[in-house]
């Protein structure tokens, strides 16, 4: 596993470029030995009682490793979005009810809003940003979503696609009814459901490994 | 590359950005030194705040301040914060006083360096209140109504009378009187309301999840008492709106106020539970319908009386009766709208405001009449078909509802239906088939667009519209490409920002009719310039050719008779100084609304299957057929229609905001307990368009398709439930316990 600091990460888009530049102070801090915030090293008097202390963790996201300091209460979703600027995973409810934050943890779907980032070390995390094989090539299901208009506003789309890929990989795309059932953890308020099912069926029929 | 024409099912131009997670919505933006706001909400339904105890919060690391009525910046234009004639201008809670008008009203904001610190800080704010008993929402208070000042659409009358209702009823052989009720519905766009606000001196910039960047710019600048030019609103991508992002709500002022207070950019994203009250909802309604009919089905009288609810501090009336005024040719018709006041957040427009609940009542009572006189529901509707608009007394610019009924019935297999309730079943399931008419008026507002042909032959379109998921960005490039004879790939659109020419709010299914007309007219104007340049240019193959003879096709200007005689925009502009051509057009209605009634129509057919023992209801099949003028993109249009029909399923069977009448508190403010359809709830569903050419309606020839899918779907399902079970359910949503009651 190769460690990658924020500044080395391949960046896409002006906003991200700017943000990572801004984060250089954070990167510098992370270059310190990974002991900051470990219990016992911070003087107890400086932290009000009951407040969680930061700890340094390493997250493996989209085949890259991120060293980062987090509070134990930070969710994986907030760390992805607010700390690492991986904004593809969306926050629709923050309660595990809508599925917009669906990611893969060791190949299984999970709602990133229900996971604490500190508990995701030593796991392989894949977000929508890590699904396509390269920046200029889409994953087959991404292509199919565009072709079959499996989206409208696009806000639930990253979560739908992450769930859809899992449904295909896990062999739950055997029939229309099965796809609908297994895709029912992801709400689409625009009502793009038939396009979503068509897209998954098209990839299933295409027979390619996804 | 194949030429992509208007009507073709081309892919969304922002599709790739959306499927890769690279589309940045408002909450995805970042600014240097950005801090986080989290709202504190009231926990009483009516009264005053006695005090805030913020000591613990302010001691927490990272907390900058708590903004509340004690320290919130004064709002210079506060006198504008009152009930308005403009439907989208709502009264906001801006921390200028200590009054609490409803439960879950924003009363303070904690601002901190991280989201976690702000959430924690907000949880530690202690509030003491002087509490009074809140006025409960409908169905309570229905005997204590008042007449609203106006309906949301300025040209709709509050009450109407045509002919003589009493006389009409006395001439009827059958009279049906029924009351229908609908619940409070909450929009719940999947993207939470969000904004990032920052000041640079006197200039304010906001990334804001809104259906109308220019509306927000106007409202915010008048409230701050500053020139409009000093406010910039950006909404590159919007994660659904459905009406809730059409108005400018409290948080859109509170974030820039907080940014001013702390001198840093503030990010404010509403939590899901905060969005039940402070950002609008569809009012609950109580609707009394009366229909008088002759034996042959001819209506002699029709009345529609609606009660909806508004807040204690603002006024918004759900215009449920407007369609009943013009849908059927009854010579005698009366309609009224009344309101009650309750301690709730102010209701607002929600996808098909008025039409969705109103047509549920209308098309349900028409079905009841059909059963009362033993007549086929389609035949009854045709018997009372309005050839002209009986309310406005104007011809329709076009109306293809008859075709919608016929084609819908054929596709659905209506002929196989046996009319007797409970007469169709399969195994444990009762099968019901129902139908209803759908309709949505054509709205149009002023919009401006700029179209520029660049020396490289590419086209730039600029207009301050926004895409809330409808496909606007895609369709606008198609419109420009169509006029200029190019492929949409040659057109770049700049939108979603008040820097571009002012466009209208994306609401009331009006964007394509309004902004599409502006783009059409600007493209036509710039094309005219190009043609003139060509036929006046001695070196052009089109020199001295009559303007009317020149057409734009395949990226070229050429003569109608001989496509080889002509040239590309590139060569024309190259010879003429390599300067771009551009035209900016303000597009607005002419007198078409004075001379015609403008509406899209449709029919919905639904099949339900209901487990006889368990009462489980599923909508097994649904077919919508619509006539809505020119369809610009078959793919995105179909998605709009299906989405609308799914909203119909949702309203008929699922949605219900449960408000505790004792406290005014919403009891199910989350997506687990506020039900919307998931994938498995939607079975076979399809939508079709009838070709309809309407050159009167607007320059784009379009009627709007964002809302019509919802309108008839609700009653088609309700009517199918009656056909399946013999139980008429007049109170939405139709849930299994109501169905099980039938024995």
In a nutshell, what does this entry contain?
Chain A: Residues 55-131 form the 2Fe-2S ferredoxin-type domain. Chain A is built from seven helices and five strands, in the order H-H-E-E-H-E-E-E-H-H-H-H. By secondary structure, chain A is of the alpha+beta class.
Please tell me about this protein's structure.
The complex is a heterodimer of chains A (210) and B (743). Chain A has helices at residues 14-22, 24-30, 76-83, 140-147, 157-169, 176-182, 193-206, and strands at residues 55-61, 64-70, 102-105, 108-111, 124-126. With 210 residues, chain A is an alpha+beta fold. Chain A folds into 2 domains: 6-130, Roll (Ubiquitin-like (UB roll)), CATH 3.10.20; 140-206, [2Fe-2S]-binding domain (DNA polymerase, domain 1, Orthogonal Bundle). Helices cover 31% and strands 12% of the residues of chain A. Chain B has 17 helices and 29 strands. The N and C termini of chain B lie far apart (63 Å). Chain B has 3 domains: 15-21 and 445-588, Aldehyde oxidase/xanthine dehydrogenase, molybdopterin binding domain (Aldehyde Oxidoreductase, domain 4, 2-Layer Sandwich); 31-133 and 190-240 and 245-275, 2-Layer Sandwich (Aldehyde Oxidoreductase, domain 4), CATH 3.30.365; 353-443 and 594-740, Aldehyde oxidase/xanthine dehydrogenase, molybdopterin binding domain (Aldehyde Oxidoreductase, domain 4, 2-Layer Sandwich). The longest helix of chain B has 25 residues, at 511-535. Chain B is of the alpha+beta class and 743 residues long. The chains are: A alpha+beta (210), B alpha+beta (743).
């Amino acid at each position: 596993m190769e460690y990658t600091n924020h500044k080395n990460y391949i960046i896409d888009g002006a906003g991200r470029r700017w943000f990572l530049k801004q984060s250089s102070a954070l990167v510098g801090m992370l270059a310190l030995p990974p002991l900051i915030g470990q219990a016992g090293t911070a003087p107890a008097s400086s932290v009000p009682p009951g407040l969680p202390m930061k700890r340094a963790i390493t997250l493996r996201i989209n085949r890259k490793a991120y060293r980062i300091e987090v509070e134990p209460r930070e969710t994986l979703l907030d760390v992805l979005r607010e700390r690492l600027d991986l904004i593809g995973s969306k926050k629709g409810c923050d309660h595990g009810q809508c599925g917009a934050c669906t990611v893969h943890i060791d190949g299984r779907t999970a709602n990133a809003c229900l996971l604490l980032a500190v508990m995701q070390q030593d796991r392989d995390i894949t977000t929508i940003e890590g699904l396509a094989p390269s920046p200029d090539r889409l994953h087959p299901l991404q292509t199919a979503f565009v072709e079959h208009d499996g989206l409208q506003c696009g806000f639930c789309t990253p979560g739908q696609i992450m769930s859809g890929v899992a449904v295909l990989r896990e062999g739950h795309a055997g029939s229309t009814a099965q796809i609908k059932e297994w895709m029912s953890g992801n709400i689409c308020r625009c009502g793009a459901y038939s396009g979503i099912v068509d897209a998954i069926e098209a990839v299933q029929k295409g027979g390619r490994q996804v | 590359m194949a030429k992509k024409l208007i009507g073709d099912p081309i892919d969304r131009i922002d599709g790739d950005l959306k499927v890769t997670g690279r589309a940045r919505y408002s909450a995805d933006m970042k600014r240097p030194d950005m801090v986080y706001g989290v709202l504190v909400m009231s926990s009483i339904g009516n009264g005053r705040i006695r005090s805030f105890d913020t000591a613990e919060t302010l001691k927490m690391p990272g907390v900058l301040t708590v903004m509340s009525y004690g320290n919130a910046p004064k709002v210079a234009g506060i006198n504008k914060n009152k009930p308005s004639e403009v439907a989208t201008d709502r009264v906001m809670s801006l921390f200028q006083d200590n009054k609490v008008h409803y439960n879950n009203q924003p009363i303070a904001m904690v601002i901190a360096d991280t989201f976690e610190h702000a959430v924690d800080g907000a949880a530690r704010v202690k509030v003491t209140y002087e509490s009074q008993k809140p006025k409960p929402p409908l169905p309570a208070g229905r005997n204590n109504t008042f007449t609203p000042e106006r309906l949301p659409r300025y040209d709709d009358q509050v009450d109407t009378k045509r002919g003589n209702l009493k006389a009409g009823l006395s001439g009827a052989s059958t009279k049906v009187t029924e009351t229908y009720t609908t619940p409070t519905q909450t929009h719940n766009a999947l993207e939470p309301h969000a904004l990032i606000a920052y000041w640079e001196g006197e200039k304010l910039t906001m990334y804001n999840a809104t259906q109308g960047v220019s509306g927000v710019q106007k409202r915010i600048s008048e409230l701050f008492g500053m020139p409009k030019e000093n406010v910039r609103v950006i909404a590159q991508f919007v994660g659904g709106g459905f009406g809730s992002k059409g108005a400018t709500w409290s948080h859109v002022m509170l974030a820039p106020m907080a940014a001013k207070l702390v001198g840093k950019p503030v990010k404010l994203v509403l939590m899901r539970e905060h969005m039940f009250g402070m950002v609008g909802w569809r009012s609950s309604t109580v609707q009394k319908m009366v229909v008088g009919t002759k034996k042959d089905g001819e209506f002699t009288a029709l009345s529609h009386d609606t009660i909806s609810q508004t807040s204690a501090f603002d006024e918004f009336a759900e215009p449920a009766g407007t369609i009943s005024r013009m849908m059927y040719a009854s010579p005698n018709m009366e309609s009224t709208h009344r309101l009650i006041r309750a301690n709730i957040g102010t209701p607002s427009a929600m996808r098909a405001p008025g039409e969705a609940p109103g047509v549920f009542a209308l098309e349900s009572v028409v079905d009841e009449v059909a059963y009362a006189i033993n007549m086929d529901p389609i035949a009854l509707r045709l018997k009372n078909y309005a050839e002209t608009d009986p309310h406005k007394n104007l011809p329709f610019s076009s109306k293809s509802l008859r075709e919608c009924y016929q084609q819908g019935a054929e596709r659905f297999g209506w002929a196989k239906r046996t009319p007797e309730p409970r007469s169709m079943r399969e195994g444990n399931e009762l099968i019901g088939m129902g139908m209803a008419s759908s309709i949505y008026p054509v709205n149009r507002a002023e919009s401006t667009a700029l179209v520029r042909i660049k020396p490289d032959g590419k086209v730039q379109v600029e207009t301050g519209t926004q895409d809330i998921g409808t496909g606007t960005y895609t369709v606008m490039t198609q419109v420009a490409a169509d006029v200029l004879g190019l492929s949409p790939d040659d057109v770049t659109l700049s939108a979603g920002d008040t820097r571009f020419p002012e466009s209208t709010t994306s609401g009331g299914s009006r964007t394509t009719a309004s902004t599409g007309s502006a783009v059409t007219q600007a493209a036509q104007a710039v094309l005219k310039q190009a043609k003139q340049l060509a036929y006046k240019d001695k070196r052009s193959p089109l020199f001295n050719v009559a303007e009317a003879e020149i057409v734009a096709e395949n990226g070229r200007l050429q003569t109608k008779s001989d496509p080889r005689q002509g040239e590309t925009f590139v060569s024309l502009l190259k010879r003429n100084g390599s300067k771009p051509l551009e035209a900016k057009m303000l597009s607005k209605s002419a007198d078409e609304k004075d001379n015609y009634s403008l509406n899209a129509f449709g029919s919905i057919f639904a099949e339900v299957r209901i487990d006889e023992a368990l009462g489980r209801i599923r909508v097994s099949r649904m077919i919508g057929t619509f006539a809505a003028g020119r369809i610009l993109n078959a793919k995105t249009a179909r998605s709009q229609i299906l989405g609308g029909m799914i909203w119909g399923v949702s309203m008929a069977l699922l949605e219900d905001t449960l408000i505790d009448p004792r406290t005014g508190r919403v009891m199910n403010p989350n997506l687990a307990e506020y039900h919307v359809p998931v994938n498995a709830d939607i079975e076979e569903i399809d939508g079709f368009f009838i070709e309809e050419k309407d050159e009167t309606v607007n320059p784009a020839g379009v009627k709007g398709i964002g809302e019509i899918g919802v309108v008839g779907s609700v009653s088609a399902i309700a009517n199918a439930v009656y056909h399946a079970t013999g139980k008429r359910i007049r109170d939405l949503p139709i849930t299994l316990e109501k169905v099980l009651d039938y024995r």
